[in-house]
Amino acid sequence: MEELSKLIDIIENKGKFVETAILDYSDNSNLETRLYNLVKSSETKNEIVLANELYGSENKSSAYKMLKSRVKRKLYNQLFFLDIDANKFVNKRAGIELRCKKLLYFAFILKQLEETALAEKTLNKVIATAQEANLVHYEIEGLEQLRVLIAEGKFNRKNLDECAKRLEALYTIKDFINKSNAMYYDVRFDIKLGVDTSHKFKLKLSGYIKDLESYWLASQASSVFYRYHQLKLMYYELEGDTERYIQYLKDTLDLYHAGKLHHSFFSVNHNMFLLVYNYLKGKHYTKGLAIAEQLKQQLQAGTNNWFAHLENYFLLGVHSGNYLKAQQILEEALANKYLTSLNPFAQERWMLYYKFFNYITGFKLPIYTNKKLKHVTLDKKGFNVWSQILDFIYVIEKDQPELIEREIDRLRKFSAKYLTSEGDNRTKLFLKLLQVIGREYQNIKVCKRKGNYILNKLKLTPAAGYAYAELEIIPYEQLWEIILQKLENKE
């Protein structure tokens, strides 16, 4: 009650709430509230139309600009009152950081109003929150403000010494954090600039990783490990060593479960997502399917992360030949009401998965059968290749020589123009196999004989590295056999 009384006394005598600081949503007769509701609900954002709606005239541009300025100011004010616990932030740590910032702001105001007891209590909340979340920066800010209060008001030598000792230790840790951040952003800049995966760049990255590991061991700061982990993941993606990548991901999960990594700076779900992807890439299908099901239970259905994970889960089912599991995942994804909330390219990937699964198994969902792909086909490589493969398969099934000849020419030109890097080798070979099919589809024995040399080369050609995000929807060797089998059945 004492704290409540004190706060009421502060508000009453040192600066009562300014009613004009925020919008009154309940008063729709107010022009500010009406503008808010119009912008929220209206499809058009035309300023002239809005001014006419509010004032009954288009000649009120000056009044409308002043109104818009007031509304924007009030909406910015209302950012102070966002629901931190609504979990709408990019990650949980962002919410905790915002809570620390707000408490630091309150403590600063209270100190300026000479309410030192309340300021100290608020700062202790900041320090406790920051300690629990391993947020060194905010713990330092809280302790620095607390040191001022102790030095200027409490005159308690023991408290001052304890505060100074803790700050000295934190300053050392903060130095490691600053160095770690500098290394991370230096690498990020190189990547954004389009630096190639040269030996020189790998050496630089490897050196940074060694430094970051030593900083982490010296500081035991989760934020230092966070940067170390990020660069380590980049390194394994550049190296393309799937087995070492898998082992590293398993080791970090073990560290987390042993309590060595703080949850604010380590995402179990993201680590498991990468583990599933690498199990798929490394053809460890049994392990991949087990982890994929475990992660699926941990993700909220309908979120972007859930759909992204289900793509890998579906591909695991297809690649492993577990078509029953693949069908279950496909049906679950396509039936989810939030599918249409994904960006158009992501939606079309699911359509492409369905069309290929329909081809290889006969599974049908009529609502998706005739849907056209618009965004996938704008890509130069990636999923556009699969769109072209699908078109070719459909043309072969129609048995129309002129169309088939046109598709052969299209694949040949596409391959020559766009599939020019080393990572495209498997795709180039498979498109050559399709051209063999196009020329000899009426004689499967000849088709197999002429395609045998290319097929053997394909089997010896490794999959593209991590720079190529797209995995084969169906392994090319597997799809070759399926196409031949279908043509043989028609004979």
Structural write-up:
- The protein is mostly helical.
- Among the domains are: 80 residues, no CATH class; 113 residues, no CATH class.
- The chain has 22 helices and no strands.
- Helix 12 packs parallel to helix 14.
Compose a concise summary of this entry.
By secondary structure, the protein is mainly alpha-helical.
What is the terminal separation in angstroms?
Answer: 89 Å
Main structural class: mainly alpha
What is the string of helix and strand elements? HHHHHHHHHHHHHHHHHHHHHH
The amount of beta strand, in percent, is under 5%
Q: How is the topology of this model organized?
A:
Layout: H1 2-14, H2 31-41, H3 47-55, H4 61-77, H5 92-112, H6 116-132, H7 136-154, H8 157-192, H9 199-219, H10 222-239, H11 242-257, H12 268-281, H13 285-298, H14 304-319, H15 323-335, H16 344-361, H17 366-369, H18 383-398, H19 401-418, H20 425-440, H21 444-460, H22 476-490
Which terms summarize this structure?
single chain, 491 residues, mainly alpha, globular
